[in-house]
C-alpha cells in the first residue's frame, strides 16, 4: 500500500479490494484499490478531502458499495462510478462500530451491547430479540461476519493462565428470522470456545468467513 494504515475500512467489490482511511486525512493516497488489472500493485482511488477521516470504526459491502462509519459520520463509496457520499441519517445514527451484512440486513451493536439490524429498504434499525440473555454485553470488542447465512459473533474471552500468550476466542452463530412488522428474532444455534496462541497484547479486530 501507499500508506501505512490501522483501523481502516476494507472490502471486496467486483474482484477488487478497496481500502479507505486508517491514516491521516491528508495522506495520499487516502483510498486505494488492488485488483487483477493492477498487476499486484495498489493504485490510488480519488476521494474528496471533505469526506476523509482517520479512523474507520466499522464497514460493510452492500449492493456493490463500500459503507463505513467514522468519528464524524458514515460514508459511502460506489466503485461503479467512483462517487462518494454520506450514508442515510438513520443508518449513521445507529451505527457505532463493527458490522456485517446477512441477507441484505446490516447488523451491528449499540453502546448498551444490544445487537441490532438495519433494513436499508425500510431505513430502520431493529433490535434482534431473543439473544440478549445468552450473550455477554458487546460494548466494543465483538466482531461480526456472515457465516453461511447466519450471523456469527466473535469476542475475546479471558487470557489463559494469567499473563499468557494464549487467548480464548468465543463465538456464536445466530439464526435471525424477519417476522411480521419487521421484527428480528434471533436464535443461537451453536457456540464454541477456541484457544489460540497469540503475541502478548493481541486483539481481535476483524473476522472473515472463508470456505476450506
TrEMBL record:
Database matches in SUPFAM superfamilies: Kelch motif
Xref: InterPro entries: F-box/kelch-repeat_ARATH, Kelch-typ_b-propeller, Kelch_FKB95
Residue ranges annotated for the FKB95-like N-terminal Kelch domain, each copy included: 1-194
PANTHER family: F-BOX/KELCH-REPEAT PROTEIN SKIP4, F-BOX_KELCH-REPEAT PROTEIN SKIP6
Official protein name in the record: F-box/kelch-repeat protein SKIP6
Species name: Anthurium amnicola
